[in-house]
Queue: 2 jobs
Job 1
Amino acid sequence: MTLTVDIEKTLVTRERRFELSVSFTGNCKRIVLFGPSGAGKTLTLQAIAGLLKPERGTIALGGVPLFDAARRIDVPARRRAAAYLFQDYALFPHLNVRQNVSFALKRGWLNPRAREESAGEVDYWLGVLDLTAVAGNHPAQLSGGQKQRVALARALVAKPRILLLDEPFAALDANMRERTRRELFDLQTRLDIPMVLITHDEADVAVFGDQVVQIDQGRVRDIAHYEALAARNTSDR
Amino acid sequence: MQDAWIPLALSLKVAGWATVLDIVFGVAVALALARWRSSARDIVDALLTLPLVMPPTVLGYYLLVLLGRRGPIGAWLDTLGIRLVFTWEGAVIAAMIAAFPLVLKSARSAFESVDPQLEQAARTLGMGETALFFRVTLPLAVRGIVAGALLAFARALGEFGATLMIAGNLPGRTQTLSIAVYSAVQAGDDHTANFLVLVTSVVSVVVLLVAGRLLPQHSLLTSR
């Protein structure tokens, strides 16, 4: 599935003015947006998810336009089927793990009940991500790794077309980071779902960087495969 | 002594209605103010907070001018057969206006303290705006709203000046607890006054204790 992004957006705050002008075409299952913090990676990811509206440009996934300023297309976030994993997970603090995971499945104005009878899909994801034991706990009672798996389960239950991850390992300690990275890699390979991952950690790039989009100061500096990138860095030294 | 229960019942009825109306309007206005990005926002907020700082008699005078039979709103209501002056409904309006800022303030800060990222997460999970309000925003803000509503109830229960101006002091009809205390003292009936004061104090303390428990730290929502 091809992801094309070609957007412009100017953000003005009292302190500074930031111009985002990002353009790339991703045709790999694993795309990494790599760059220092404040480079505009998160803004780009938010634009793909529909959480940030660019001023100009287009975003398309698998040939279907999600945003097109010229044609006045702006598919709302809730219809983009883009799962977004927030850096600090954004779990609903008033709902337990099971309620969080089944959030997207329950329509209407009421949240899923705390003790729902078994729902196949929810149980499946709780099992896959090793959360069955904590299904009744609230987010405040979970470890960082568990929170991240809940966020992942909550997103995957909705059957997304693409997985967007904002610094998914940044809030974990070194041990958990290594383990979670492998788990996410295996899971993504098994599900065969395209993903875009933001990081400033080279170790993440090595694992997920089928295609690496380097972003700096709101611009795309380079698009390459990790191998090419690593080789170039070595020859530079 | 029997007579003390009549103003108490009336006070609870008036304060109850005033609080219900305050919750409905206060939450709606608070949400609008929390979302509205405009410089006029602070002016609207200040105007709506006025009842908190204005003398209740001034407030009552405004209400009398607006809601009296010759007032702009009162004249219109009169054609519909609704009279607010010297009625318990008028007392509800007075108590509602006087207590409104308390609901507004706490509801607004409750809405503003809800992490916008949680609402964004709900959107990416396919939630529409109305559903996400009832499933994410409101549950996370509800404790602040309830605490504000209890303070509003306490304030409405103690309303005196504005109520006296618009609803008067008609025993059994518009004589609320706080007005009954004044009347009893004026009439030299210390016995009744003592009892009424005691009842008022107990009710107020209970309301404040409950409100205090609903404010942060006590995890009402996350406990099962």
Note: Residues 136 and 178 of chain A are 27 Å apart (CA to CA).
Job 2
Amino acid sequence: MAHISELEASLRPPAMEMPPYPPKVITLASGEEMVVRQVERDEVPTLLEAIYPLLWVERDFYDIVGARLFGELLAYKRYRVKDEYVLAGMIDGVLAGMVNGRLVDGKTGMSYHTLTIRRGLRVGSHLFAAKMEYHIEHCGQEEVLIVAESPIGFRRWMIEYPLEKRFEVQHELGGVPSWVLPSATYYNAKPRLVAGTRPVPAELLKSAETIMLPAEETVVRQVAGEKEGKE
Amino acid sequence: MNPVYIAGAGMTKFGRSEWSLIRLASEASRSALHHANLGEIPVDGVVVANMGAARVNKQTALGSALVDQLALYPAAAEAVENGPASGASAFKVGCQAIASGMADVVLVTGVERMRVVNGLEGTDFVASLSHPEAEYIYGVTLPALAGMFARLFMDRYGVERKHLAMVAIKNHLNATKNPYAHIQQAVTMEGILTLPEAAVNNPPIAEPLHMFDCCPVSDGAASVVLVSEDVASRLGGPKVRVAGIGQATDTHAVHDREDPTDLKAVRLASEKAFAMAGLAPSDIDVAELHDAFTILEIAESEAAGFFPRGEGHKALERGETALDGPLPINPSGGLKAKGHPVGATGVAHLVELTWQLRGEAEARQVKDAKTAYACNFGGFGNNVVASVLQREAK
Amino acid sequence: MSDKVYGAKCTSCGTVSYPMRAVCPNCRNETFERVAIEGEGKVLTFTDVYALAIDYETRYLRLAIVELDSGQRATGQLLADDPKLGMRIKTTIGVVREQGESEIHGLQFVPA
């Protein structure tokens, strides 16, 4: 690693030991296989390129989720956020969605965002579950604090896991009242909500080595609805 | 009764649209009108099919609105509401105008723009067709009624979840050949049923029905131009005749049905349509059924008379209803994959069948299709309109 | 009036309409007397609904169509842990929906 100045070092948060996320593969409804793996700092620019067109899509809160995620990914890359992780799902090497969060301490996780690019195949549900799996099973945490920008999207998780209210805690995302997923609830929900097999076969993992971007037009169309119909 | 012909058919892509309700209707209408190529022949009437505009789009008097958009005034115009069977009901009304001799050219357009409201609001709006005191207040939704129907039907006739999955797989595959379909994404048995990940890929909606057993919520519009025999002759071109239409109703509350697994209204409506056409189910070359839920495709295929009771899922399993089978069902992709803008669906059936009978269905063309059948299922099976179309030799 | 659910019994032929009607489907008579929909019976069919309306925050709702021993059918919420087709139930009245501030009462079915 390049030598960093004392000042730079002081602007970086101290880092906790974070176990790597072991990649897994999930077969989607279409029969396609999605590889879920952790994202390295040098891959962040690719993710930023994918998010950029969504920054002005108001529908389904993509603009604020995109904007916040953009900042969080940059902060991860530039060492300005403590203990953040990023996971991505790829189908045939093409980015299908991403999730992120950070570890507050050994006991508590803070879930940040979930962004789905390839819609209609429950990619968001799979990736959100992978996030919870990381916090609770791999990092050994006791609970994860969760909020969301979109009420409709959030309602599904709130009811499905189910999540509990922890409203006295202000979530880092704007200080809004937190919900929480305790580890016991996670394990109860696991058979229903968490899928995937390990290890990922070598060939498949290799195909997911480099994150490829879907065409911008595809991203916007998938996410924001038909391009036809814009006046 | 004078003969009625379909001279033009058009539709918008189904899915999520930024277009307004009336813009959707007018795009489908213009497409059908261009297809009909009326030239100087005037349009006498416009009938619009729609279920939810007053509630979700806060707009009423759609017939008048569309007439203005298309500059067809002073043509007669009105809207028809019959829940999910609005489309075929509007079609029936248009046919009656021509059959009675009151009109020579009628434009029938079905339209729905539901995605302006969220899924909860949309579910609630559709649930409003259930009985307010005996069903709705209990949290009954259309999927709930379908789930209860499915459980009993499956138990009685030995239909399994894999058969429901076969309907979804077939219709999704057909839709990949339909540029107008909402969902153009093939699905597999492993992905939606047999693998452990199917639990997440295909979560329960109203058991035993899961996500891939239920059609999506779609925006869209579909339109047909109905003409008299005289106009059909003047236009030249292939003649698709409306050979028969039948409609039947049943009790409002599903629990009140004589036999809750019997789609009696489908049977009665179909019998009437076939009787008017002088045809039998065995004469049909291609059919568009109302698979708002996969179980309904199986049940309707029996009630319409294509297969004996309890045999529909076996015919499906043998591939008889696939695009290359002896009786292709839902070549368009069905409601399941083509989509279900509620008011448009009944008309979209007829658009697909018109294209099929004219040899214009491209990658999904059913070879030599001459006679076609459609079933538009209103309420939860308590108001059904069945139609039979026939291509006339030149 | 939240203690019972009522159907309409034809004063001429005794046929019960539930939900109520204005005209008897059996004899076309147009006068009725109120009759409670209650008693024991069996589950005809049921479902666990996950796609719920906005008034509900449970993960799923268990609904059923039952056939009472009187022959009368009804729709309601099934409060049974291990539902089976044909299982014996009896009717009860409970809160079936909350719309804003108001609680709506209706039929619930419990194991008999």
Note: The interface with chain C takes residues 159-160, 162 of chain A (CB under 8 Å).
